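Customer escalation, tier 2.

The customer says the design service returned an amino acid string that "doesn't look like it belongs to this structure." They asked us to rerun it and document both sides in this ticket. The original structure tokens are below, unchanged.
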């Protein structure tokens, strides 16, 4: 048994989260109420949006965004195959058809030129409804050209900002380019609510629709047993909202701590043969550190490295198996290996190391020493 365990992620919870949760439990109002409203209000304000609609998950927010955008059976939505599966799944929920474009191999986000080309090609065919850029690993997609092309063709832009709260480019926050965006607060995220998500939009009609859809299709008349449309139970409970309220107030601090951890990793792994950190952001772009990922050179066996780290008590995770190669996507749409080469290359070369804001310096040092030794020995053994 290893003497030490370094976990992949951990939430950052303080007495403030506990205090607000306790207030909610004492109040007895565990669904809706002023704490949920305060969370939504402060979240929207933080990003200069008119409406934040709290949801039970980021996936739920994406699903509702698809409905608001009017995605129907057979409609096409352009997105990336290099993401967590929920981003593309949200298209399938409404029987839409994902049209994948490959990533830029440096930034790992949707290639903007390829995305614009896809918009220009598909829009005249009449079924293109939306484009879903994913701000992956806390890095914003280069949005300007995509946004312009989408506007030219009347295509809705839905941003998946689940991994990128607080990231920005040229002064614009992730989630503020498109008509609607989704955030996720799973416990490995930069801020958490336990499970939870937010749909962010400036559109009054979409916010109203989202509030109805998350609440079993109820109208805003307040009549509890009247359902004017097919809805879901996608509500965020108020206990989660209390955690979220404390976390959104602490967001600056949370992001700052994560950045400090990433900088220590960067410094310790700099120059290590066989391992490359992800590309730094361009000028004007600010990352919101979600995960710490290394890219392994060809010839370094990722599975062996993961096992060697595990033997030392260090968790790690290969990121991401490409969505188009997931069994359901192959079966449904006939995707095959070789269709998105940059995504597939990234899908075999990236490894996430333990990462969260409270990761101790000694733990980071321990992980980096282990990576250095294990990668070194693999290169010697070949
Ligand atoms: C890119 C991306 N999209 C969507 C989601 C879905 O969020 P959730 O797990 O809150 O449903 C996640 C995270 O889990 C994600 O990383």
């Amino acid at each position: 048994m290893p003497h030490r365990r370094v976990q992949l992620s951990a939430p950052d919870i303080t007495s403030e989260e506990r205090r607000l949760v306790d207030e909610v439990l004492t109040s007895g109002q565990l669904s809706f109420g002023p704490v949920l409203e305060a969370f939504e209000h402060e979240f929207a304000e933080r990003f200069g949006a008119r409406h934040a609609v709290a949801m039970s998950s980021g996936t739920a927010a994406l699903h509702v965004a698809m409905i608001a955008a009017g995605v129907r059976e057979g409609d096409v939505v352009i997105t990336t195959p290099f993401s967590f599966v929920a981003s593309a799944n949200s298209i399938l929920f409404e029987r839409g058809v994902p049209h994948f474009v490959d990533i830029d191999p440096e930034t790992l986000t949707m290639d903007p030129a390829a995305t614009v080309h896809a918009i220009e090609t598909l829009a005249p065919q009449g079924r293109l409804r939306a484009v879903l850029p994913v701000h992956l690993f806390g890095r914003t997609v280069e949005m300007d050209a995509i946004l312009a092309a989408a506007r030219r063709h009347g295509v809705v832009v839905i941003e998946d900002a689940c991994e990128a709260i607080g990231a920005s480019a040229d002064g614009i926050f992730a989630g503020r380019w498109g008509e609607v965006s989704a955030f996720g607060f799973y416990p490995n995220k930069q801020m958490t609510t336990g499970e939870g998500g937010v749909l962010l939009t400036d559109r009054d009609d979409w916010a109203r629709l989202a509030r109805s859809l998350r609440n079993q299709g109820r109208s805003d008349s307040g009549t509890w047993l009247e359902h004017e449309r097919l809805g879901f139970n996608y509500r965020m409970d108020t206990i989660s909202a209390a955690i979220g309220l404390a976390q959104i107030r602490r967001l600056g601090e949370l992001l700052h701590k994560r950045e400090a951890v990433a900088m220590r990793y960067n410094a310790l792994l700099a120059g290590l043969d066989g391992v490359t950190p992800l590309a730094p952001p361009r000028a004007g772009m600010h990352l919101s550190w979600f995960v710490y990922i290394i890219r392994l050179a060809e010839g370094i066996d990722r599975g062996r490295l993961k096992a060697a780290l595990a033997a030392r008590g260090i968790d790690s995770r290969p990121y991401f198996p490409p969505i188009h190669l997931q069994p359901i996507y192959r079966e449904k749409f006939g995707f095959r290996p070789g269709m998105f080469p940059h995504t597939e290359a990234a899908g075999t070369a990236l490894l996430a190391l333990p990462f969260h804001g409270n990761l101790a310096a000694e733990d980071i040092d321990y992980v980096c020493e282990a990576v250095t030794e294990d990668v070194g020995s693999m290169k010697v053994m070949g």
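Tier 2 assessment: The sequence is consistent with the input. Residues 361-381 form the longest helix (21 residues). The chain has a mean pLDDT of 97. Sent an explanation to the customer and offered a walkthrough call.
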